[in-house]
Amino acid sequence: MYATTARGALLAAFACVLVGGSFTANSVLADYPYAGGQFLRYGLACLLLVPWAGKGAAGRLRALAPRQWVRLALLAAVGMVGFNLAVIAAERTAEPAVPGVFVGCAPVVVAVLVPLLDGRRPGRAVLYGALLVAVGAFTVQGWGRTDGAGIAFSVCALAGEVGFAVLAVPVLRPLGPRLLSATVCAVAALESAVVAVSSDGTGWLRRPDGVEAAALLWQAVVVTVVGFVCWYMGMQRIGAERATLFSGLIPVAAACTAPLVGTGSFGLAQAAGSALVCLGVALGSGALTRAESGRATPPAASFRGNGSPRGRIDAASDMPE
Fold first, then answer.
1. pTM (2 decimals)?
2. Which residues neighbour 283 within 8 Å (Cβ) at sequence distance 6 or greater?
3. Dihedral, CA of residue 216, residue 221, residue 225 and residue 231, to nearest 10
4. Which of 21, 74, 243, 312 could form an SS bridge with 235, CB 3.0 to 4.6 Å?
5. Which residues neighbour 37 within 8 Å (Cβ) at sequence distance 6 or greater?
6. Of 132, 136, 55, 149, which Cα lies nearest the Cα of 94?
7. Where does the chain cross the membrane (predicted)?
């Protein structure tokens, strides 16, 4: 693979591993007001990201069209606040593995949806790789008890995971990964506050104890600030289809970190599923296939439409970060 593609793959993989670790952190926040916690997480992340947004950030934000602001609001509502609310709602009547399995299908949906929105056929290697990733995610997590409501909210969680990638593509070029991350965190913090006040009233926010504070800091600083920027930098280089393949690493990372806090175990099924996820990522990213003329496929450095790659090998360097 070209250096740009390799860097993009590593960034996307690293981001998804961090997100997988956040699922374990969520397990120690069960008694903390959910929406209030999300307000703290995204609000702190925004404050940390603003100085890192780069030169001309205010001008780039003013240049956005109204429809792009609507897309940013949807990205925060669907892919961040809505995704987390859907997972929590699903787990009220379903075991955690159920929404995890649905979210593990996100690479398949993105592998089909993004090309269709861009007026082209889905790539065969990416689609086959995405199917392997989905099967691997299922193997890692298994299937648990559920009902109709659990399945419905799990489908909403899947939609949120897909939206987090697809909705970001048209605003990634004008804003760049860092400013995009800061902006959606600001919007998500405002949306979380509205949800918190509406659902929890005056008890929507309280001082966290030591363990809760550590979990919230981990989510804000590591998962959101570092993870979001790495995710969008990876997508900037390899495109939404290939980047979403690495979301299969989320359940793998969750399974690996769960034993550390006593909320799960890592056995043969988790090892086999992890191997399938890695195989699917390698196949879908092109690492297992030979490109024409004996060369690797040029990296997805620039985008048209909804995320189709095109451009020179160094085109990613022309995009704001």
1. 0.80
2. 125, 128, 129, 132, 289
3. -80
4. 243
5. 29, 208, 212, 216
6. 149
7. 40-58, 70-90, 96-118, 125-144, 150-172, 179-196, 216-233, 245-262, 268-288
Cα-trace Rg, the chain: 19
Helices 83-93 and 148-166: crossing angle in degrees, nearest 10, is 160
Place of tokens 């899947």: 158
Question: Distance between CA 13 and CA 58 in Å, rounded?
Answer: 30
HSE-CB of 310 using CA atoms within 13 angstroms = 7
The residue type found at 9 is: A
In angstroms, rounded to a whole number, what is the distance separating the alpha carbons of residues 128 and 111?
9
**What confidence category does residue 308 fall into, taking pLDDT thresholds of 50, 70 and 90?**
very low
Coil, helix or strand at residue 303: strand
Using an 8 Å Cβ cutoff, are 70 and 174 in contact?
no
Query: Of 53-57, 73-77, 101-105, 251-255, which one has max mean pLDDT?
Result: 73-77
Better-predicted residue by pLDDT, 270 or 116: 116
Q: What is the DSSP string of 133-166?
A: HHHHHHHHH------HHHHHHHHHHHHHHHHHHH
The number of beta carbons lying within 10 Å of the beta carbon of residue 285 is 26
DSSP line for 243-290: HHHGGGHHHHHHHHHGGGGTS----HHHHHHHHHHHHHHHHHHTTTSP
Structure tokens at 9: 């793959």
Distance CA 46, CA 53 (A): 10
What phi-psi label fits residue 120: left (phi over 0), alpha (psi between -120 and 50 degrees) or beta? beta
CA distance 260 to 262: 6
pLDDT at 144: 66
Closest CA to 183 of 317, 38, 68, 84: 68
145 and 94 Cβ atoms separated by less than 8 Å: yes
